[in-house]
Amino acid sequence: MRTLSDSTRQQAQALMEMYPTKEAAMLPVLHLAQKEFGLIDDEAEQVVAEVMGISPVSVRETSRFYFMYHHHPVGKYHLQVCQNISCTIMGAETILDHIKRRLGIEAEERTEDGLFSVERVECIACCDRGPAMLVNDKLHTGLTPDKIDGIIKESDPERKLDHMQSEGNKE
Amino acid sequence: MPELKLVSKNFEYDDQPDIKSAMSRGAYQQWKRVLSEKIPPEDIIEEVKTAKLRGQGGAGFPAGVKWGFVPKDSPKPKYLCVNADEGEPGTFKDRALLEKDPHQLLEGIAITCYAVGIHTAFIYMRGEFYEPQRIVQDAIDQAKKEGLLGENISGSGFNLEVIIHMGAGAYICGEETALLNSLEGGKGWPRLKPPFPALVGAFNCPTVINNVETISGVPHILRMGGEEFAKIGTEKDGGTKLFGVSGHAAKPGLYELPMGTSLKELIYDHAGGVRDGKGLKAVIPGGSSTPILKPDELDIPLEFEAMMDAGTMLGSGAAVVLDETVSIPQVFMVMSRFYAHESCGQCTPCREGCTWVYKTAKKIAEGNGQPSDLDLILDIAPMFNGTTVCPLGAALAAPAVAMVEKFRDEFLKLMKN
Q: Which part of the chain is the NADH-ubiquinone oxidoreductase 51kDa subunit iron-sulphur binding domain (chain B) (predicted)?
């Protein structure tokens, strides 16, 4: 079974002492565990339960409720594309199609090399600058197919984009 | 009415998150005055009541009245929860308040906590707010160093700890009691009310929950005085509001205007009308939970009651401009998908109702609908409007009915005969 590093355990301990109840540290401790493990799967839930001294089922109840805890591996670069109203009417679907074509995967999938994954997300509160997406913790706004290519190239300079025809470039 | 900047007054300065720069522009002056003049806490609550400051998250409950519900001599600790779970589609004002003027929020938090007798404040921030978290945490650290937060603030004996609590992706946690359950480490299921959080809130203790914008307005009330603040707005809604405009506006962005400014003025005079010379099809006036308006329905004052009288809501003040090229059935599908996705699952009418509407909307948007589908939506919407623990179901029901009724012809055009 995996374990959390000493420093993460110490941070978890400090969080449990900071809140009026130790259970209140659940969301931040799950965030810490996800940062270390890359996801919150069954085993990660067990580890968190053990570190926090609470039942595994309580951890599971919380971890499965929130969309930001990943139960399957995501890419090193996790593209979270807003699909809500303001972004949609500004062209979010075109952006998503372009990303899928460039990476050769569907939404909610990961590239074979594990570098990229794509997820459709709801409103991320930057509606005046849409279409928008988060790549890991970084916000990108005013997206265009060219900007997407730039973001992919910056993340993976070796990646060849030329052979993957994009609708955006055909026109 | 021209723009009147209070909470967005210092948005133009890039160095505002730096405490020294913020203080050179007046940050923490009211907080220092409260402490040095030993202003009685009940006077501050009265001032906020006089100011007619209303909850800016969408519900519009008078802030001072809410604070007044908290028992003065509670043997239990009391808490403040600042609602920074901004997730109402179309809304982006709290992100700006957190990123551009974090010290204004912290000053508001300090004054609010002093007025209500609170020593621990939580800022519940949505999990996706990575940059706002960094900026606000840095601001808290700076304020502590300056002796404006923390233990024995400025030798007053008053202690205040401010803690950022990050959510993890759930729109429902913007509902105040779901927020409390999420803060306590559970899933974000709303609680039945009563008891109200002012009596039984976080960790079973009396709790004040206010939106970021509401709390950011507090230092301005103390600076101007409640009466002057109230005069800016209308009879029942004091002060200004940060209105957001997105979609096909010529100049999308945030505009701080006196409460009661007309929606038409916001869209045309401030946001420049529709971009690229296109015609206007409709406006969603206050976040996606508010019923849609047609172009001839925009001459309404932006205040809570007047918007209700017009059959819609002020909501979070976030207007989405839809130009003539927009397909309303597609917007309807996107909107209902959101509520189906975000329904927490606790109440059957909402969980099933939102999903049913989404499936029907998707069918229609894909060209497979029938006229009877529209009647089905109108038929089932009342079943999850007001029949559940929280208003999430209602937040789809009312706009769904408005879209179907106002744009019936457009829906019918998509259908095979």
A: 329-374
Q: Provide CB contacts within 8 A for A6, sequence distance 6+.
A: none
Tens of pLDDT, residues A111-126: 999 999 999 999 999 9
| Sign, CA torsion B408/B410/B412/B415 | negative
Residue B343: C-alpha distances to residues A65, A141, B81 (Å): 11, 27, 23
Residue A167 burial (10 A CB sphere; 0-12, 13-18, 19+): exposed
CB-based burial label for A50 (10 Å; 0-12, 13-18, 19+): middle
Chain B residues lying within 8 Å of A49, measured CB to CB = none
Closest to B245 (Cβ–Cβ): which among A69, A89, A128? A128
Count helices and strands (H / E) in chain B: 17, 8
Start-to-end C-alpha separation, chain A = 52
Picking from B2, B228, B182, B172, the residue whose alpha carbon sits closest to that of residue B81 is B182
Tens of pLDDT, residues B248-292? 999 999 999 999 999 999 999 999 999 999 999 999 999 999 999
B168 touches chain A (CB under 8 A): yes
Reported as a single tens digit per residue, the pLDDT across B7-26 is: 999 999 999 999 999 999 99
Average pLDDT, chain A: 94
CATH number of the domain encompassing residue B297: 3.10.20.600
The CATH number that applies at residue B390 is: 1.20.1440.230
How close A87 comes to chain B (CA, Å)? 8
* pLDDT at position A168: 47
Provide, as residue numbers in chain A, all residues whose Cβ is less than 8 Å from the Cβ of B274.
none
Q: Is the peptide bond before B190 cis (omega within 30 degrees of 0)?
A: no
Can you spell out the DSSP letters for B115-137? Answer: HHT-SEEEEEE-TT-HHHHHHHH
Nearest residue in B to A69, CA atom: B168
| Distance in angstroms (rounded) separating the CA atoms of residues A171 and B212 | 44
Nearest by Cα to A14 from A52, A48, A43: A52
Mean pLDDT computed over every residue of chain B = 97
Closest to A85 (Cβ–Cβ): which among B126, B252, B334?
B334
ipTM: 0.95
| Prediction pTM value | 0.97
The C-alpha of A160 sits at a distance from chain B's nearest C-alpha, in angstroms, of 30
Does residue B267 share a domain with residue B176? no
- The fraction of chain B above a pLDDT of 70, given in percent, is 100
Q: Tell me: do B222 and B122 sit in the same domain.
A: yes
Burial B306-325 (b: 16+ CB within 10 A, else e): bbeebebbbbbbbbbbbbee
Confidence of residue B1 (pLDDT cuts 50, 70, 90): confident
**Chain A residues bordering chain B (beta-carbon distance below 8 Å):** 18-21, 23-28, 30-31, 58, 61-62, 65-69, 80, 83-86, 88-90, 121-130, 134, 137-139
User: A23 and B183: CB-CB below 8 Å?
Assistant: no
Q: What's the domain count of chain B?
A: 3
Q: Are residues B60 and B169 in the same domain?
A: yes
